[in-house]
Amino acid sequence: MSPRFPLNGSPDGGEPHAPGGQPVTPLVETAGTAGRHRVTFLWRARSEDEQAVVLINTLTDRDRHAGDISGHVMHRTPGDDMLRLTYELDADLRASYQILPCAEIPGTDRDSWLRVMMTALPDPGNPVRIPGSHGRNPSSLLELPGAPAQPYRDRRPGVPEGRVHESGTAGRRVWVYTPPGHGASGDGPGRGAAGPYPVLVLLDGDVWAGRIAPTMDNLIAEGRIPPMAVLLPDAVDRPTRLREMACHEPFVRHLAGELLPWAVREWGVTDDPALTVVAGQSFGGLTASYAAFTAPERFGNVLSQSGSYWWSDEDPEWLTRRYERVPRLPVRFHVEAGRLEWMLLEENRRFAEMLAAKGYEVTFTEYNGGHDPACWLGGLAGGLTGLAAGWL
């Protein structure tokens, strides 16, 4: 978890410091309002002219859409080279954030913000990092004391470890997580396995390939899920992702007709849709739900996080209405979204309510956070545990 210190937490009454003189940040103290904390971010300016902006996932972006990010600009302490900014935030917030050092405050138009997203930096005083994706720098992790636990996130000593293999099929790079003991007695990736194994197809595999193994290992070791494999198809690049993750039937047919049969042959996974989960975040959550709509004979479980159910601009909430118009499919759902996801929370609520009204088995979870990888890893563990509860 992120370091937490009171504002006057060091022995000399000043701020605590990391090696090299950088303050350990963010600084957290109880606010006067019940259920809130004061959180102070610090940045040591490298010149007299340098300014800085705190980019808290969702909070800053919401104000950016409103055209005013002045509330996120850090201010200089008189007689010091330190810039600082204090927020009062709910005590159960979990969020990723970055800091943007700049000579002048950036504009709020889309092109300016795309440049901000590619150049903002992690907090040098916070050692807890979240890997960047699609060419972006890493982010730092803010976890306030009341944030829900993510007990399966980090590697635990002594827990048997599965393996992540880099492979490919049909011209696409795919990473494959195999649980401890998979293929132990064989001479190939799927030979000697004790399967067939339940399988999770986790979209945006390039983002998750380096992060998913500890969570799977811990869940399996605790008996929360059975030993299962994870297929992690590469999103390739941004243009490909934007095309394939927008209810694109050829991509779903690739997953159902090429990726999964390949994994059955080569990695010992099941071909039972009831033991197959497709999962994704943002457009990946939309695509996971579309995959089950298009190929319910192959995808019997959907784990959608922050799904982009607003899609599309020409026909808003297209997929929600498609589900509403057809008889109930043999698919189970776990849907979750952050209460700070002001651009898609209502759409996620309506999607889950529609499923429930049609008789689907669906759980819907809201958390205090945004459209944020800091929240998704913990939510992935919880959603997968719920969907796999009857498989043990």
UniProtKB/TrEMBL annotation:
<dbReference type="InterPro" id="IPR029058">
    <property type="entry name" value="AB_hydrolase_fold"/>
</dbReference>
<dbReference type="InterPro" id="IPR050583">
    <property type="entry name" value="Mycobacterial_A85_antigen"/>
</dbReference>
<dbReference type="GO" id="GO:0005737">
    <property type="term" value="C:cytoplasm"/>
</dbReference>
<feature type="region of interest" description="Disordered">
    <location>
        <begin position="1"/>
        <end position="31"/>
    </location>
</feature>
<dbReference type="GO" id="GO:0006826">
    <property type="term" value="P:iron ion transport"/>
</dbReference>
<dbReference type="GO" id="GO:0008849">
    <property type="term" value="F:enterochelin esterase activity"/>
</dbReference>
<dbReference type="InterPro" id="IPR000801">
    <property type="entry name" value="Esterase-like"/>
</dbReference>
<dbReference type="Pfam" id="PF00756">
    <property type="entry name" value="Esterase"/>
</dbReference>
<dbReference type="GO" id="GO:0005506">
    <property type="term" value="F:iron ion binding"/>
</dbReference>
<dbReference type="InterPro" id="IPR013783">
    <property type="entry name" value="Ig-like_fold"/>
</dbReference>
<feature type="domain" description="Enterochelin esterase N-terminal">
    <location>
        <begin position="38"/>
        <end position="151"/>
    </location>
</feature>
<keyword id="KW-0378">Hydrolase</keyword>
<dbReference type="GO" id="GO:0005975">
    <property type="term" value="P:carbohydrate metabolic process"/>
</dbReference>
<protein>
    <submittedName>
        <fullName>Enterochelin esterase family protein</fullName>
    </submittedName>
</protein>
<comment type="similarity">
    <text>Belongs to the Fes family.</text>
</comment>
<dbReference type="InterPro" id="IPR014756">
    <property type="entry name" value="Ig_E-set"/>
</dbReference>
<keyword id="KW-0963">Cytoplasm</keyword>
<feature type="compositionally biased region" description="Basic and acidic residues">
    <location>
        <begin position="152"/>
        <end position="166"/>
    </location>
</feature>
<dbReference type="InterPro" id="IPR021764">
    <property type="entry name" value="Enterochelin_esterase_N"/>
</dbReference>
<feature type="region of interest" description="Disordered">
    <location>
        <begin position="142"/>
        <end position="167"/>
    </location>
</feature>
<dbReference type="Pfam" id="PF11806">
    <property type="entry name" value="Enterochelin_N"/>
</dbReference>
